[in-house]
Specification:
- It is a single chain.
- It contains 15 helices and no strands.
- The protein has 316 residues and is mainly alpha-helical.
- It has one domain.
- Helix 1 runs antiparallel to helix 5 (86-99) and helix 8 runs antiparallel to helix 15 (290-312).
- The radius of gyration is 19 Å and the shape is globular.
- The protein starts with a helix and ends with a helix.
Length: 316
């Protein structure tokens, strides 16, 4: 496969996954701001945390914007000048998809193209009727439809492996970022991890991961912050957990090594991080520092993404 084609497939999947995750981040902020003020740092902190999660705080501050609901929703949802807005992600996903149109199945292309063509009208309707939550649900549904068409119709070849790698590298990054922001930014000053933080906030966090039902099934008790961390970092059963993402990443990299007859630095990095997650303990993570653990994970995940690009997608 041409490295440019691999690059397009990888980033197509990353952008669709990113759009979905930012929709989830906006939804959890919207839910949290409906709670009594001050339970997690106040109204502004909730919305500012969403900007931090999207990785575009610098652009937001340089534009002199205020961290309130309408402003952040516009900035993360529709702003074409924001490189990480949902609008930009879907536009770039479609551009990458169009560049490899003959590699995509009909179902993949139609779901992707229809999402882009419908975006502006969906956004306008959401703003006109104050139905932002419905718009965010639509973004999640469209991402799920694309992912389902990819999984259900694409040949299990190297193109499939590159597309799935993009999904899981991005999902791991966003899971870690949302967890880190919740624990490090939104936890009230002076509040110990595991303290009396409002039950509904942890419920909202679980909803952001579509994990509320899974949490109750596995733990059969009200949400506890340390158990949420265990679920989203170390539980293999949870499809958005870090360890679940890395099980998939290692598997697809192994298939690429078999296809191309060579292993690279990205294989070593992925295996090393996967092993660390396999043998990690939730209590040890808390004792050594949740923020430090997640920050290091995000850095190592980004390095892995760069190494995958260097090994397979150099288009210099």
């Amino acid at each position: 496969m041409l490295s440019r084609t691999a690059n397009n497939l990888y980033w197509l999947s990353r952008y669709m996954e990113r759009a979905e995750n930012f929709a989830r981040a906006l939804e959890v902020a919207d839910r949290m701001t409906m709670m009594p003020d001050g339970s997690a740092g106040g109204y502004e902190s909730e919305w500012r945390s969403t900007v931090i999660t999207s990785g575009c705080l610098k652009e937001f501050d340089e534009a002199g914007l205020r961290a309130d609901g309408p402003t952040v929703t516009e900035f993360v949802g529709r702003n074409p000048d924001n490189p990480s807005s949902i609008y930009t992600c879907i536009r770039l996903a479609r551009e990458n998809g169009r560049a490899v149109r003959t590699t995509l199945t009909t179902e993949m292309w139609e779901s992707l193209n229809d999402t882009w063509l419908s975006f502006d009208q969906r956004w306008a309707d959401a703003r006109r009727y104050n139905e932002i939550r419905g718009f965010l649900d639509w973004v999640k549904e469209r991402s799920t439809l694309f992912r389902g068409s990819l999984y259900g119709t694409m040949l299990r070849d190297d193109a499939f492996d590159f597309a799935r790698l993009g999904t899981y590298i991005e999902r791991a990054d966003n899971t870690a970022r949302i967890l880190d922001v919740k624990y490090h930014i939104l936890l009230p000053e002076g509040e110990a991890v595991g303290g009396g933080v409002d039950y509904f906030q942890w419920t909202s966090l679980l909803r952001a991961f579509s994990a509320l039902g899974s949490y109750h099934y596995l733990y059969r008790e009200n949400p506890k912050p340390w158990k949420i961390a265990e679920l989203m970092i170390l539980r293999r059963e949870m499809p958005r957990s870090l360890i679940s993402c890395y099980r998939e990443i290692v598997g697809h990299l192994d298939k690429l090594a078999e296809t191309y007859g060579a292993r690279h630095e990205c294989h070593r990095l992925a295996g090393k991080l996967h092993s660390r997650l396999q043998f990690a303990d939730a209590n040890e993570i808390f004792q050594s520092g949740m923020h430090e653990f997640l920050t290091e994970f995000i850095e190592r995940n980004n390095r892995l993404g760069n190494e995958i690009t260097r090994s397979y997608m150099f288009i210099g």
